[in-house]
Amino acid sequence: MLIECHDCKAKVDAEIIGHHTDNDFFAVKTFLLKCPSCNSSLIAESHEDYKENEQTWTKPVRVYPKPQRSLGKDIPPIVKISIEEAEKCMQAAAYLAATAMCGRALEAICRHYKTKDNYLGGGLKELKDNGLIDQRLYQWGEELRDQRNNAAHATDTDISSQDANDVLTFTYAIIDYVFLLAQKFEQYQARKVKRLKSKETATTKT
Length: 206
Ligand SMILES: [Zn+2]
Known about the structure:
2 domains, alpha+beta, 51% helix
């Protein structure tokens, strides 16, 4: 089975040691695999699906070790595409390209919020000034911007796997903060207001 090996950082034809399918409505098939090159154990999952009433299975994806993070549907597509590209570059050990893609994701966040400044530096500052990111995230953003500039321009700087991994982690943190946490907080506040209102109505009735 073709799968990305986290250790070889390449697609390998892994040997299937065993598999199991659960009984759920949309079943999940779990595979225990062995990398033929580095002998690592890998676990992959494939999900049952239906296309025109025909049963199909999704392409197996590694879930252990180091699974790829999945981004929710609330993330704007342009941000999602950049992150997915960055993940692919990481899996292929293309660290410069991965870092450049993280920079693209940040630019996409600025564009989503329609910052006046088209440059990443100015865009990030606007996000901070408008309260969309805090001081710490702004500093991270500035670090990402520096790394992105090194990666995107023909300089002789090299980017290590650890640096590229940190850049990806920071990018996820900024995405979580800007899109997911802000939204969860708004939903929480809305529920709170609703609860208070129904309490008030109940008290005025009695
Ligand atoms: Zn391997």
